[in-house]
Amino acid sequence: MSDLARLSINQMTVRQLSLPELARTCVELGVPCVGLWREPVQEYGVGAAAGLVRDAGLRVSTLCRGGFLTATDPGAREAALADNRRAVDEAAALGTGTLVLVSGGLPAGSRDLRGARERVADALAELGPYAEGMGVRLAIEPLHPMYAADRCVVSTLAQALDLAERFPARQVGVAVDTYHVWWDDTAPARIARAGAAGRLHAFQLADWTTPLPAGVLNGRGRLGDGAIDMREWKGHMDAAGYTGAIEVELFSEELWAMDGREALARTAERFVTHVIR
Amino acid sequence: MSDLARLSINQMTVRQLSLPELARTCVELGVPCVGLWREPVQEYGVGAAAGLVRDAGLRVSTLCRGGFLTATDPGAREAALADNRRAVDEAAALGTGTLVLVSGGLPAGSRDLRGARERVADALAELGPYAEGMGVRLAIEPLHPMYAADRCVVSTLAQALDLAERFPARQVGVAVDTYHVWWDDTAPARIARAGAAGRLHAFQLADWTTPLPAGVLNGRGRLGDGAIDMREWKGHMDAAGYTGAIEVELFSEELWAMDGREALARTAERFVTHVIR
After folding, report:
1. Where are the alpha helices (DSSP H) in chain A?
2. What span, in angstroms and rounded, lies between the C-alpha atoms of A259 and A223?
3. Chain B contact for A158, CB < 8 A?
4. CA terminus-to-terminus distance, chain A
5. Has the keyword DNA damage been applied to this entry (chains A, B) (predicted)?
6. Tell me: the pLDDT tens digits for A249-270?
């Protein structure tokens, strides 16, 4: 098996590349799989994007992202559900079985984390059957606790799995991203439990480097530059029976400033060096 | 009982005040208690500082901070232990029964979180009996997971309590700071467990506001400005039997830019509004 057989490049990692450039570069470099984002796919056209990646012989590991399901306002809640049904449709059209969900933060002025997490569960109850009907699994992604207020009230793999386990595994599972869970000594046991139940729907890599930038969004480290032992986390996923794509998803000003092809080539090299070999 | 009876002002909250100014302002405003930091106390002189707060009739809730116990280098490790014994001595001299410990981050180039946490345990085995002999309890403070790499490998109250429970409660307990634990739905149960065992040695408050500043150190929110329900966390501590001081510890550029007396007065007002009444 090629060293790159399980690599998926998340589109955000090389956002300076257009969708056709991304597809062409992946083919040239032998990267077999991509993780796509809704906004650039919509801009290109969902059907056109689906045709592009299909014609290039690429697989689509995940579509990022649905979610943002914590609104209390009924109108906003209905709009979020409708948008997530569209995200499911887009995932199905792109031929990926996995839609990644980021749950959303606290509504303005709210301090009710528990209530927000329950609204995510309520939304999953509506979206899960719809997704199943379209052949798409929802992957709840816990984000690092530093995003709990403004982006994602689901902060740990335990919380994500607690939510997922209320629904059938063919509807709802979890996404494991090293950047978000690396500090959590209880995460490996949750990976094992999720794997046993068929709920490991996505695996993403980014390294943890400091100091964090203002806003803490775009400082994800390139593999090997930070504090995370990538092989150890891949080992947890292997042991849990996960055999799917391994996505590299870096939000990195450093990487975005590079030539896109170069950024993708270097990312693939680091994947081999720090994850596979 | 006065609304301020349980308030302690952590010195860092109004670091623009000298130690005499801090003591005088606390007395004027009816704040009965302070949390002190080693560096300004050493600068003023430990004995002089002890006399100053004693003569002002102030209690000292905690001394911040010892710790930084994760070094692998034997020399650095010995130096850290010696420094922590001095911190214990200083706490005893100041008349506080509690030394707050921040465990330290990963050594440069290391990715071994588990090993670093074990070295903290090894150090506690040496420091605990020494502290007990001096009448001082060590309070392990879990810091928010965003500090796991570079500041504190103990990221959750569960991890802190797992460490503390290896030692007698009269030697080692935990410090609970809302800023660090507010996102963690498993923290309330750990507070209850720590309280039942007499291991709740300190309680600190800061609010969570976003966006976080670069470096994520000095953006702690003033009480009431952020996502944390202060009354809820005080309720957890109350239910666990904690009756000690409630320290307000804000690292805030905004607060530091204010007149120190004004900053302290406004902080006391917010304590009453958002915690007590």
Report:
1. 19-29, 38-44, 46-55, 74-94, 113-133, 157-164, 178-181, 187-196, 230-239, 253-256, 260-271
2. 18
3. yes
4. 12
5. no
6. 999 999 999 999 999 999 999 9
**pLDDT for position A49:** 98
Cis peptide bond prior to B211, omega within 30° of 0: yes
User: Bridge-partner residues for B204, per DSSP?
Assistant: B177, B247
CB contact (8 A) between residue A183 and residue B155: yes
Give residue A141's identity as a one-letter amino acid code. Answer: E
Contact across the interface for B144 and A145, Cβ inside 8 Å: yes
Residue B32: both structure tokens together: 């009965």
Query: Which tokens is A151 given?
Result: 């982006």
Residues B210-222 pLDDT 10s:
999 999 999 999 9
Q: How many CB atoms lie within 10 A of CB B203?
A: 26
Smallest Cα distance from B206 to chain A, Å: 14
Domain range annotation of chain A: 7-276
Inspect the interface and report whether the beta carbons of A211 and B212 lie closer than 8 Å.
Answer: no
**A chain contacts of residue B106, beta-carbon cutoff 8 Å:** 227
B229 touches chain A (CB under 8 A): yes
Please give the class, per CATH, of domain B7-276: alpha beta
* pLDDT, mean of residues A136-160: 98
Is the minimum CB–CB distance between B234 and chain A shorter than 8 Å?
no
A146 vs B: CB within 8 A: yes
> A227, B186: Cβ pair inside 8 Å?
no
